[in-house]
Amino acid sequence: MKALFTPQFAKELGFISFIFLITLPLIYPEVLLPQLALASDAQTGENQPLVFQIKDPTLIQNLQNSSLSYQAVVENDPLVTKLRAYLEEHNSPLAQYADQIILQPQWQRALAISWVESNFGIHCANNNCSGIGVAPGHPTWRKYETKLDWFKDMCQLLEKPIYKEKYTTFEKMKGIYVYPGSNSWVYGAKTKYAELMALTKEAEEEKLAQSQTYPIATALGTIELAELTK
Fold this sequence. Notes:
Elements: H1 7-27, H2 29-32, H3 57-66, H4 70-75, H5 78-89, H6 98-101, H7 107-118, H8 147-158, H9 161-166, H10 170-173, H11 183-213, H12 215-228
């Protein structure tokens, strides 16, 4: 997942961008009649490249002012701000990575597991906040430079078929991911997962409302964000 873009939301933003592009010439006629060069080269017989120019400095400035920077998009993303606040309420050191966490697949599930394993990264050994590799000192125990490195690895682990296709619920993971596991482990993970999914839904609704209120700014900011996060 990059930032907050569900398939439905991406379609809505695509429609907004399309409307923006087709209505731009009506608002700024300068764009409608750009100088295009299609004359054949007298010596080579080849076509000259097409030239598209916007000479009106006011138009250029307006377009630049409408475009949101990547950082501005991130800082104003409802999901980032809500997740950061949520983690800060739990005194989690993961709060500083909120903008990166939401880019990872199955991030809600990974965070939910980290709650029952380390209270959202508070109690970790070697920045391993979900017990990957049995326990510290075990040959399979994994160590990480940062908690963000661990989180990315955890999300990739959940993307493997064993957890993405077979053991897909916390009940099924008991005795497999965590051994022997307990009902309290399952309950804690399910509770936090539900909270994180509710937070995600709330942020999506807020983001959609913003896109309807400020369609051009949101569309331009989204395009720039998509380019920089490829």
